[in-house]
Specification:
Layout: E1 3-6, H1 16-31, E2 35-40, H2 50-63, E3 69-72, H3 77-89, E4 93-96, H4 100-106, E5 137-140, H5 161-164, E6 169-171, H6 179-189, E7 194-198, H7 205-215, E8 221-225, E9 228-232, E10 235-238, H8 245-248, H9 254-265, H10 276-280, E11 293-294, E12 296-297, E13 302-303
Parallel strand pairs: 1-2, 2-3, 7-8, 9-11
Antiparallel strand pairs: 4-5, 5-6, 9-10, 12-13
Helix pairs in contact: 1-9, 2-9, 6-7
Bound molecules: zinc ion.
Length: 304
């Protein structure tokens, strides 16, 4: 039996885009008879707060998503640190003091919309005391190899991550273990076999697969889904800024929001209230829309 996971960061209220991801993860797992866990990715203590955890749990509960287990990532730091020890023992960690503005000034556009790092600090040694004593960002040296990689939907994720993205930061200078490392360590430790997530994270997959190889961890099946976007200025952004569950819940109960999400996803003919349980039997990825959808919150309703 497989294991799926929904892994939101509790850095704000629960937004429709986050809840869409949770619904699709849950339906993917339950329609296959898999177990599904909720992992609260709260390592970034500058942004994650207990009140945001409550907001996510409230929203997920209202929507009718029941998870087999709930993990709080910050309670698992020991295994993240063990992974850092393993990478250090293999001679793969190095300190990097390059500023964000320096990396930006290089002008190497990365596939995730950011800028690629040029690995210029490779070869610099960690200080005495190793990564624990390092006051700079710590990066992991990836092999300079191309990965040929497709997700389950056929999305081409092929990349030479060391060049396209640059060696990833695995430990921030403030001591927080970085997302790219924590996610691969936790997926493996929790036996995750299927990673279903929004397409915005797809460009990170090659980096994560490289880290899995360096750590001797298995690679799960990946599937990336469409995003809810909102107009912001003259471009579209992930639907995150405008409305969260606290405001939405004045106009939408869980069943109404579930119905709206299912309809936007292409799973139902009309946005009538429903529950995840009622959607499981007929769930199939071939019915889920492929293209992103632009959504507006007009203060009363979500408008696709
Ligand atoms: Zn550097």
């Amino acid at each position: 039996m497989g294991v799926g996971r929904f892994a939101p960061s509790p850095t704000g209220d629960a937004h429709p885009g986050t809840l869409l991801a949770g619904l699709l993860v849950w339906l993917d797992a339950k329609s296959r008879g898999d177990t599904v866990l909720l992992r609260l990715e709260d390592l970034d203590t500058t942004r994650a707060q207990g009140s945001h955890v409550d907001a996510i749990l409230d929203a997920v509960g209202a929507l009718g998503l029941r998870f087999d287990t709930v993990h709080t990532q910050s309670l698992d730091k020991a295994r993240h640190h063990l992974a850092l020890d393993n990478l250090a023992a293999a001679g793969l960690l190095y300190p990097c003091a390059c500023s964000r503005s320096r990396v930006k000034a290089l002008g190497r556009k990365a596939p995730d919309g950011g800028f690629a790092y040029d690995n210029v600090c490779r070869g610099r040694p960690l200080p005495e005391g190793g990564w624990r004593a390092c006051g700079e960002n710590v990066r992991a040296r990836l092999p300079d190899e191309a990965l040929r990689l497709y997700d389950e939907s056929g999305l081409d994720l092929s990349q030479t991550p060391a060049a396209a993205m640059g060696d990833p930061i695995v430990l921030r200078r403030d001591g927080v273990v970085a997302y790219q490392l924590a996610v691969v360590v936790d997926d493996a430790a929790q036996g995750v076999t299927r990673v279903v997530r929004g397409r915005d994270i797809a460009p990170s997959t090659a980096t994560q697969v490289m880290l899995q190889r360096l750590l001797g961890l298995p690679t799960p099946v990946y599937r990336h889904h469409f995003l809810l976007l909102e107009p912001r200025g003259d471009k579209l952004a992930k639907l995150h800024g405008s409305v969260g569950w606290r405001e939405l819940s004045r106009k939408y109960d869980g069943a109404k929001l579930c119905g709206w999400l299912a309809h936007v996803a292409g799973l139902t003919q009309a946005p009538t209230p429903t529950t995840p349980d009622a959607l499981v039997d007929a769930f199939d990825w071939s019915r889920v829309r492929g293209d992103d959808v632009t959504v507006r919150w007009n203060g009363h309703a979500l408008e696709p």
